[in-house]
Design a protein that fits this description.
Blueprint (H helix, E strand, L loop, with lengths): L2 E6 L3 H4 L14 H14 L2 E7 L33 E4 L12 E6 L10 H8 L3 E7 L1 H14 L3 E10 L3 H13 L3 E3 L1 H4 L2
Parallel strand pairs: 1-2, 1-5, 2-4, 3-4, 5-6, 6-7
Length: about 190
């Protein structure tokens, strides 16, 4: 069974208190995110890292404060979560898909499946098992796990490497996920 790790939106604007759209408590996740990403690299497991990449006047800013504007420090991932061999998959339709240890998939809305190249990336990776972690459980993580399950994939959510904007909505997202057949694990269980 081929596995892919999916590191969802672990960007400075979400992870740290000074970030533009900080998810409370998520700074505590950074060491575990780095651990999972490095574990994937050490085992030859492909890593997808989703990232918001907004324009300065992005339509999403009507619903959310400006955040993760492309090219800003807040849009970047913490250095310790980056692998040496990485490539980006832009939001441009028909972009060439290059594989590396870490494929950074840019998106402009909550759902990574909105990237017109994402499903082709999944096809190219040819995995049937996905391990997902990141922020925010009740938004972008929910979209990723729901989309992967709908695509017929086996999905495991790493419960101690997620954080929600609303704890209640995060718990509801996890409950919906398990009701649809999703699996739960901890970082220690995944890296065993």
């Amino acid at each position: 069974m081929k596995t892919v790790f999916v590191d969802v939106d672990t960007q400075i604007d979400f992870l740290f208190p000074a970030g533009a759209l900080y998810v409370r408590g998520s700074e505590r996740l950074v060491p575990a995110i780095a651990r999972l990403n490095r574990y994937a690299a050490s085992k030859g497991i492909a890593l997808i890292s989703t990232t918001d990449a907004h324009s300065e006047n992005d339509p999403e800013f009507k619903a959310w404060p400006p955040h993760c504007v492309a090219g800003t420090r807040g849009q970047q991932k913490p250095d310790e979560t980056l692998l040496d061999r990485r490539t980006a998959l832009p939001f441009t339709p028909g972009a060439e898909i290059e594989l590396a240890e870490q494929v950074v998939v840019e998106k402009q809305v909550l759902d990574v499946f909105s990237n017109p190249n994402f499903e082709a990336l999944l096809d190219r990776l040819g995995a049937d098992n996905y391990v997902v972690y990141g922020v925010a459980t009740d938004y972008c993580v929910r979209c990723a796990i729901t989309g992967l399950l709908a695509a017929g994939k086996r999905v495991t959510l790493v419960t101690d490497v997620i954080a929600a904007v609303s704890p209640e909505d995060g718990a509801r997202a996890v409950a919906e996920f398990t009701a649809k057949g999703g699996q739960l694990a901890t970082v220690d269980e995944v890296t065993r």
